[in-house]
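Hi W.,

Here's what went into the run:
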Amino acid sequence: MRGAPHPRREGDEALPASLPRRFPRPRSFFPAILVLGLAALLWPARELRSDNFIFYFPSGQHRLPLESVGSAKYLPLLQILNMVGKVGGIQEKKNSLKVWFGTTQIELRSNESKVRVDRASYELPQPVHLSDGQWMVPVDFLTTILPHLTHQAVEYQEGTNRIFIGDVKPASFTVRLDPIANGVRLTVQFTDKVAVRTASSNGKWVMFLGDRPMEPMEPSYRFQNPYLSDLQYDDQDGVPKLILSPTSSGLNFYPVQAEGGKILLADVLKPPPPSAQTLPLQPAPQPAPTSGQPTPEGLTPQVTEESPAAPPGLPLPVVALDAGHGGADNGGHSHDGVLEKDLVAQYVGRVRSALLATDKYRVVLTRTGDLNVSSEQRALAANLSGAICFLSFHAGDLGMALPRITLFTYQPPTAAAPAAGDAPTPAFVPWGQVQEARLGQSLQLALALQQQFALINGVEVDLPATAPVRTLRYVNAPAVAIELGRLAPDEDATALANPAFQQQVAGAVVQALASFAKGGN
Amino acid sequence: MTVRAKILLLILLMALGAGGFYLRSLAQHVFLEPTPRAEEAARAKLNQFALQPNNGTMQLATLYFPALNEGKILPESRSITWAQADADRVRQVVLALAEGSHQGYGRVLPASTTVRAVFLAPDGTAYVDLSNDILSDLEPGIQSETLTIYSIVNSVAINIPSVKRVQFLIQGQEVETLDGHADLTAAFVPDSTRVKSGP
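Here's what came out:
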């Protein structure tokens, strides 16, 4: 049927005469295409990433594909169970699953966050769901339920993609960057000996760390530096490694190990400047790449006039937080079974979060998880990171007042009542006396903390005292031990374990550091 | 079975029973009731000798005990009949501290703590080797450990002037810390600021 001719509009001239009039014209598609494109771009992705989750056991490690749904991470339940033990049988219905794992029966339902293990019931933060026929459980299943199934120690740091099950003692490392002539020196201090092998790949330097399980204190380090942009830890393919990204091509990389493998020193240097004749835009022959000198893809060495390197931006100051004890060393304990090592780890976690929330600090933890770290290693973590201060958290018997906080600066056993002022620093300071040159600053820090803690309602705060605290001895920064009381076998730890009180302490630490940084107390 | 055979069987069974009983008591003696070792016996005798010298003079000694509430150590007078040798006097002071305060002050050492050995070096360093019983009843914490240490060091130094500093050993070994806090790798000099001044 032919209708009346449409009135011609502007733009219709370009329309082919052969195009039937009943179809919308191409111009009318544009808004729809635009909306669909934007929707595709902005639609919340259900599976943006496809990472791996690494399970470290004493006998080795296994990988499982990790499914990310929004911010939640999921793992396949049956694969987890088969990895840590033996699944005796399953009974699957449309929306529910029963699993017999050893003598234990696990029951879960799709889109429900409650999981039954025998007669006990556990609540997961996200619901279980079915994905391509696989029963997926949130990662928190590993810490909430798995220990009850395997009866083994489980160490998992929230936010990471790795877990240590059983008697696995992961190593860790701290990172420090120091300017040197014509370049920068990266120092990686490991908590244990590590055999490092270096290679270059895709314009980055890769340092393979052998098969030693590793728990990094931070997953990545970003540098505000003209030579290096970041250092990342990666074990997604099951091979622990550090990936160092230079800011530009043409830099030389000279790694060397020291102290039997406990320290990796890597100098990143600008190559010697080309002679004046090659300066005017003559492409220089590209040096043959070596294993230690990466040539970033798509980049050729720039031959420009030698200009001074841009001044490095000011990195955020580092605060070293030390949770006392750990591993086999439980420290003290309360009447209701709260261990000092766990309690102080809670405080350190809260202080860390409060400091990071200010966007004014980086935080280095001297121990992550339940590990036994020596006093020297704790101090080394602070010293290598160039920390502006070191706070060591402890809990103990401080008499009957509850809660009570006492702050300690270091007192060398060989000297009674040390002078408050900083001693003049000689050219070489013995390792064991490094804190003695910082006692004045440490006292200022302790006073700043004392003032802020005193503002917490109902807390008794003593004037800073001195004590021969071994952990403080080797710290080359203002250092204070914070002892919270009362944690003793004849008293419950209710007051100290109170999250509100812990948060108040964390807030007071942030205020005290701000005050200390301004030079006031 | 003849009567003779029955009697022989009875005798055999009795012998077996007696042998079994003997073996059981022997095993109990060997494995379950160890006799005090000669070393420990000698130490006990030495401690007893140090505490009850025959020909010494009784004097008032000052001992320090911790007051956790105040973060200080408190003095207490005690009559002690001093031994002749300074090393024995050091032992006397430490054992008196282990006995506990007579005025109800805090405990320095568990009563079960024994002084394994005391050496007095010419430079005035007293090496005090304590049994690890010291850790059995120690109040946890930095403050507690610090006050324990200075209770001993100040008590020893104020009563035995030849002692300038005290180096602690636990079970004959140098240890890093007393119980995770206080550094024991160096000798301690007495610290008078630890003593509570005034009422």
